[in-house]
Design goal:
The complex is a heterotrimer.
Chain A (H helix, E strand, L loop, with lengths): L12 H7 L4 H11 L1 H23 L31 H36 L1 H16 L2 H20 L1 H15 L3 H15 L2 H9 L3 H37 L11 H8 L8 H28 L6
Helix pairs in contact in A: 2-12, 3-4, 3-12, 4-5, 4-7, 4-8, 4-10, 4-11, 6-7, 8-10, 9-10, 10-11, 10-12, 11-12
Chain B lengths: L1 H25 L5 H7 L1 H8 L12 E6 L14 H7 L7 E3 L5 E3 L19 E5 L14 H12 L14 E8 L2 E6 L20 H4 L11 H5 L7 E7 L3 E6 L13 E6 L3 H10 L5 E3 L5 H8 L4 E16 L29 H9 L3 H9 L3 E3 L23 H10 L20 E7 L2 H16 L3 E7 L1 H4 L17 E6 L7 H4 L25 H12 L3 H17 L3 E14 L2 E2 L17 E2 L2
Parallel strand pairs in B: 1-9, 1-10, 13-14, 13-15
Antiparallel strand pairs in B: 2-3, 4-6, 5-6, 7-8, 8-9, 10-16, 11-15, 11-16, 12-16, 17-18
Chain C lengths: L1 H27 L15 H10 L6 H25 L20 H36 L4 H15 L2 H15 L16 H38 L2 H8 L4 H30 L2 H6 L5 H10 L3 H29 L7
Helix pairs in contact in C: 1-12, 4-5, 4-7, 4-9, 5-7, 6-7, 7-9, 8-9, 9-12, 11-12
Classes of the chains: A mainly alpha, B alpha+beta, C mainly alpha.
């Protein structure tokens, strides 16, 4: 659901930056730091990212190694997260899975932001493209997302797997599909912002001076579009992580030999009453990650949109 | 300082969340034992007077198929679930009992050579029908219905999925109202394909007369509400969801069935079905509980129901590719022709295949992954006992050292020290090992890969969506028939008790290749003259004992040449509530074949 | 307004046709095979016959044309016939049939709609009724404890995946406590008090999981819409004129801020039909989402195609509705 649609238009930050010796970003950071929930989210996220990036280098147990002698063990010193029914170490699996889940989130966000910004700014700036691009956006919005996602993934999983190898293939597919079906809200926001900025005096001045269009677009308009894009990109990361885990949960995302958090949750769901840690860890990790990203998004909105401040 | 309050509430909620999680994980499991009995079906059980007998005295019986029933016409079914669902309503001339022996149902007796029902030349079989059978609509059941059903399924445009039951059938004729003669175009030592078992029951001519050929697809009412001779009739059919059956008032046995209504629910997955029958007691019978053994055991311990397992002909096996699947070969990939066998670089070596088989610990796979639903298997024809080969049981013992020694001797050594052996020509022994997406299969893959690593063979795992893998799209490279892999794994089985047509799958002429659109059944592309000759002998032998001996020999030829490597003999696993009685699990026919006899007790 | 409507309707038609083409194209490239789920005992030659009988051998444009005719012409006529009881045209025209059940796709969809409407629709209604007051109070009392709790609650609400909360609920309330059934009984007919209680019991878990998620989302949106309006000049003017707070809020702020909220709610309605796939899966509600998943797994192309196309049409339709509501409620919008 499109909740965090940051309201476009009316960014008056430009004037403010000239009056004081403070930059836009410095200002935003000061504001952001005051938002305790956002800071809390940032700290949690940094810990999580640090954990999954550095973790597998320190915790060297093979996440795929099967050993029935130690199957279904509760969390202990040797296996802090416990083991699953095949005796695989769950800490290693969760760390490894986190890498993929986070990478999917960031990569899918990048795809959708690039598309959204490109299409939105083109539609907003070039009048003759506006109608065409917005109709296209409407069509994309009218495609039913989750069903289509499921269909596309079932259809092309094996083709891409063959072309790019088992992990990379499905990674590209999931990222591409989530990204390509998620850029439309961003495009609309960007278009709205561009439309309002285009009318501002400083842009008219640049046009009068005779600057080239590409220069106006890159120097004057895009920087102003940045803050709504940043806000919606945090939401996009969270949404992408959720979508990926939902797909894996339906058994349609990554294959079992690629343990993402969603996949771990899916594989473990039958064990919930029996060995709850198999499910609790990945469930908690997904929830915490998405929660902290959303807190950060909330803080960023407050920090970057002066109208929301009190 | 409002920000502090903000933070405090965040922490508070965090704590709350943790608490909820903890409750979820640790809540005392005291309740389920009594709650199970309190839910509807269980309550009905407790209230029902054990003394009450007779038709419809038992109220509802709840059945759960996690793969929901899509259609009630077995000839258009989408799988076993549909055939089972239909078997409550429509009946064949004879069923297979749990011991694999045929029992007459709509016929008076099983025709044999001895009683003259089967012709001496094996070219025809004559069934005598019972004359006291009524369809659910009150009209009499006659030979005309049987003749019609034969025509219905043998119509080529219709897409009948029991067409193979009618192999070699030349004609089905009504000799008189209660005698049917089926003639064959070739000698049939086992003439019990048509109208035996729940895959080919008899449909009512009056109802289906307008549904021949392509029209079969359009007869939704008929396909959902077939008129049958069985103990129940369909009263509410919700495709892919729930089917409700009520007593057939015209059923031949006046005091049966005991239950007035059968509610067959569908949906969910195997684990939730197991939970519903074993733990919460919501249903009386749940079919196909392929669940991790630890979970099934834990659920069974709740005491509301029990797991029932019987073993039939299903065997999970590895298929060894005798041709070269190298992608560089293009169209010649995994392609066998009589002139060019296109041999695999190392899997054509008997020693390699044997070593791969020796390295596998079948007992671990069966116990840890299949639990009650599987035993270590060394034959591709594991049942019935009369055709089970006693010659291969030593495969159960894993022998990694032996396998290593065998490969060393045969000249496969790790020359470059990377842990993977090379063939004498210097080709590394890497195997692409594929199967369908399925948790148990994928876990088996991971285990086998680990064992093969120990004998210096590297396996790359691949799992293909079942809808693609078991599909027959000639354009798809990932079907099991194309076999664009070195090894693949799946379960194969046959219908009924007699494996003779199944054994025909591995003749040279059956090899799957481009010429037959990969529709051939010989997937390993294994060709043995000795096997072909022996199989021809089987088709000409009528004596049951001699036939069984030949089937055992055929099995041994395949298994001892490691053309297919059997792993696990798979059982059928279902669950029933403690109060359901006279349920007879059956691996040779529909599991609900005797639903008319079911009762409820304490 | 009238002219604008006609123009919008006219652009909606090509949009739907393009969408139908895209979906059909994607499904056509599917490597899946409807005969794959048949038992292994059925030999390949027989499978080939079954595929032929499903019409799989025909070329693409013929199948697409056939589908379009069935979807936009035959099936609407059939529905019309059923509603009026009158015979219109050819009684034997081709129907859109599912490959799994060989029955008309429309029948399957009508079978499934009640439970989806009950569960997903009800949760949406609950969510809307809860979210608007929650969001409004949060905005008026910005940074109060109520607002902070609300913020945390709603962010948690849409951060914790429904499949995780769903699993926890089942374990606690179905397995441990045994209060609610783990299966949704679609044959249950509410005719007296006990059956009503039974219906409530089987709905309570899926409805609360979905409602939590949607309340969170809508209340968050309401809050920011109200906040936007509270800072407008007209509010300050109203306060300056000496109106009391609830008058200002109800008469001015709420009326203006509900415009985007109502639009959002209208846009969310199509998701009632499509969005509950996961929840239906977890709580074993055999609704439309479950139907779609099974159809995808079984490569049942006509069913997948019909369902996705209906979703698409609903989305286009409710977009239109949202625009119209906007036009009616917001006098600043002038349709030229």
């Amino acid at each position: 659901m499109a909740v965090g649609t940051a309201d476009p238009g009316g960014l008056q930050l430009q004037a403010e930056t000239h009056r004081k010796q403070r930059t836009l970003w410095g200002d935003a950071w000061v504001q952001f730091r005051r938002h305790k929930l956002a800071m809390f989210g940032l700290i949690i996220l940094v810990i999580l990212v640090f954990g999954v990036v550095i973790g597998p280098l320190v915790w060297k147990i093979d996440p795929e190694y099967i050993d029935f002698a130690i199957s279904n063990q509760a969390p202990s010193l040797a296996h802090p997260f416990g083991t699953d029914d095949l005796g695989r170490d769950l800490l290693a699996r969760n760390l490894y899975g986190g890498r993929i889940s986070l990478a999917v989130g960031v990569a899918a966000m990048t795809v959708s932001m690039l598309f959204g910004t490109l299409i939105g700014s083109m539609a907003g700036y070039f009048d003759h493209l506006d109608n065409l691009l917005m109709r296209f956006t409407d069509i994309m919005l009218a495609l039913p997302q989750l069903p289509l996602l499921l269909v596309i993934i079932t259809l092309f999983r094996d083709t891409l797997r063959d072309a790019f190898g088992p992990e990379m293939g499905i990674f590209l597919l999931v990222v591409f599909v989530i990204g390509i079906l998620g850029w439309m809200p961003t495009a609309r926001i960007v278009r709205g912002t561009v439309l309002s900025i285009k009318e501002k005096e400083f842009v008219e001045a640049a046009v009068n001076v005779g600057s080239r269009e590409t220069r106006i677009l890159s120097r004057h308009i895009l920087p102003n579009v940045l803050s709504p894009v940043i806000v919606s990109s945090t939401l996009a990361v969270a949404a992408a992580i959720l979508t990926e885990s939902a797909l894996s949960f339906l058994g349609l995302g990554f294959p079992p030999d690629v343990p993402t958090w969603g996949r771990l949750l899916f594989d473990g769901q039958n064990f919930l009453t029996y060995t709850p840690w198999v499910v609790i860890w990945p469930g908690m990790l997904i929830s915490l990650t998405v929660l902290s990203i959303n807190f950060i998004g909330d803080g960023l909105r407050d920090a970057l949109d002066p109208r929301q401040r009190s | 300082m409002m920000q502090h309050k903000y933070l405090r509430s965040a922490i508070l909620l965090g704590l709350l969340l943790t608490l909820i999680l903890l409750v979820g994980a640790c809540a005392t499991p005291s309740a389920p034992a009594d709650t199970g009995a309190a839910t509807d079906s269980g309550a009905a059980a407790a209230d029902a007077e054990p003394a009450a007998t007779g038709r419809g005295a038992g109220g509802d019986v709840n059945i759960l198929f996690w793969q929901a029933v899509s259609i009630a016409n077995p000839y258009l079914s989408g799988g076993t679930k549909d055939i089972f669902g239909a078997s409550i309503v429509v009946e064949p001339l004879a069923n297979y009992a749990p011991d694999g022996v045929m029992v007459p149902r709509l016929a008076t007796e099983i025709p044999t050579l001895d009683n003259g029902g089967v012709a001496e030349d094996l070219m025809s079989i004559t069934w005598t029908l019972r004359d006291d059978i009524m369809w659910a609509d009150g009209t009499p059941f006659t030979a005309a219905d049987v003749v019609f059903t034969g025509e219905y399924c043998m119509d080529e445009e219709m897409g009948c999925n029991a067409a193979s039951n009618f192999t070699n059938v030349e004609s089905v004729e009504a000799v008189d109202d209660y005698t049917v003669k089926i003639s064959f175009s070739a000698a049939m030592p086992f003439p019990y394909g048509p109208f035996v078992g729940s895959t080919s029951p008899v449909l009512q001519q009056a109802q289906f007369a307008d549904c021949m050929g392509l029209k079969a697809q359009e007869c939704s009412d008929q396909n959902f509400y077939p008129v049958g001779t069985g103990p129940y009739k369909v009263t509410d059919f919700r495709a892919n969801d729930t089917v409700v059956y009520e007593v057939n008032e015209n059923y031949r046995e006046a005091d049966k069935p005991y239950f007035a209504r059968v509610v067959l629910k569908g949906g969910g997955d195997a684990a939730s079905a197991a939970r519903a029958v074993l733990e919460t007691g919501e249903v009386d019978y749940a079919w196909n509980l392929q669940v991790e053994p630890q979970i099934l055991n834990a659920m069974e311990a709740a005491g509301n129901g029990q797991v029932v397992v019987t073993f039939g002909p299903a065997v999970e096996r590895l298929i060894v590719n005798f041709t070269n699947p190298d992608p560089a070969l293009g169209d010649k990939r995994s392609e066998w022709t009589p002139d060019d066998p296109n041999p695999h670089p190392f899997l054509t070596d008997y020693n390699v295949r044997k070593a791969l088989s020796m390295a596998i610990d079948r007992t671990t796979i069966a116990e840890q992954l299949y639990g009650a639903g599987g035993t270590a298997g060394c034959n591709i024809v594991p049942n019935p006992p009369a055709v089970r080969s006693p010659n291969n049981d030593d495969c159960v013992t894993q022998d990694i050292d032996g396998a290593n020694a065998l490969l060393d001797e045969a000249g496969y050594a790790d020359t470059d020290g990377d842990g993977v052996r090379e063939t004498p020509d210097g080709m590394p022994m890497k195997i692409l090992y594929q199967t369908s997406v399925n948790p148990v299969r994928e876990k088996t893959q991971a285990l086998v890969k680990q064992w093969w690593e120990q004998i210096g063979v590297e396996a790359e795992l691949k799992s293909v969506d079942a809808g693609v893998f078991f599909g027959g799209d000639p354009a798809s490279p990932d079907t099991y028939g194309k076999l664009y892999a070195d090894i693949e794994m799946f379960t194969n089985t046959w219908d009924g008790t007699d494996p003779s047509s199944y054994m025909g799958n591995w003749q040279c002429e059956e090899i799957a290749r481009a010429e037959n659109q990969w529709l051939g059944n010989n997937i390993p592309r294994w060709c043995s003259e000795e096997y072909d000759q022996l199989y021809t002998e089987l088709t000409e032998t009528a004596d049951p004992d001699a036939r069984n001996a030949i089937i055992i020999q055929l099995n041994d030829l395949i298994v001892q040449d490691y053309a297919m490597i059997p792993l696990v003999t798979r059982g059928d696993v279902s669950g029933i509530s403690n109060s359901l009685q006279n349920f007879q699990m059956n691996s040779w026919d529909s599991e609900i074949w005797n639903i008319a006899d079911w009762t409820r007790g304490e | 307004m009238g002219q604008y409507l006609i123009r919008r309707l006219l652009t909606a038609i090509p949009t739907i046709i393009i969408i139908s083409f895209i979906i059909f194209l994607i499904l056509d490239m599917a490597p899946g095979d409807p005969t794959a789920s048949l038992p292994m005992t059925i030999p390949q030659e027989v499978r080939e016959q079954i595929r032929e009988s499903l019409g799989l051998g025909q070329p693409f444009h013929i199948r697409y044309g056939k589908f379009m005719k069935q979807f936009f012409w035959s099936e609407p006529l059939n529905i019309l016939e059923e509603m009026t009881g009158a015979q219109i045209g050819d009684p034997n025209r081709l129907r859109l049939r599912s490959w799994q059940t060989r029955s008309p796709v429309i029948d399957l969809i009508t079978d499934r709609t009640p439970q989806t409407l009950w569960v997903v629709g009800l949760s949406y209604v609950i969510a809307v009724l809860l979210a608007i007051p929650l969001g409004t109070i949060s905005a008026i009392r910005q940074y109060s404890i109520f607002d902070q709790l609300g913020t945390v609650f709603s962010i948690i609400g849409y951060s914790v995946p429904t499949f995780f909360t769903g699993l926890l609920l089942i374990i606690i309330f179905s397995v441990r406590l045994g209060w609610f059934p783990s299966y949704y009984d679609t044959t249950l007919v509410v005719h007296d008090w006990p059956s009503f209680v039974k219906q409530i019991k089987q709905m309570i878990m899926p409805v609360s999981v979905l409602a939590l998620f949607q309340t969170a989302a809508i209340s968050r949106y309401t809050r920011s819409a109200v906040l936007d309006n509270l800072k407008q000049d007209y509010v300050r003017t109203a306060y300056a004129k000496g109106f009391r707070e609830h008058v200002v809020v109800v008469r001015h702020v709420l009326r203006n801020s509900l415009i985007p909220v109502i639009t959002l709610i209208a846009l969310g309605i199509p998701q009632i039909f499509a969005g509950a796939i996961i929840t239906e899966q977890i709580f074993r509600v055999n609704g439309l989402g479950e139907l779609l998943i099974r159809a995808i797994q079984g490569s049942d192309v006509p069913l997948v195609m019909t369902l996705t196309l209906i979703f698409a049409i609903l989305i286009v339709f409710f977009n239109l509705i949202a625009d119209i509501i906007y036009g009616i409620l917001d006098p600043r919008i002038r349709y030229g």
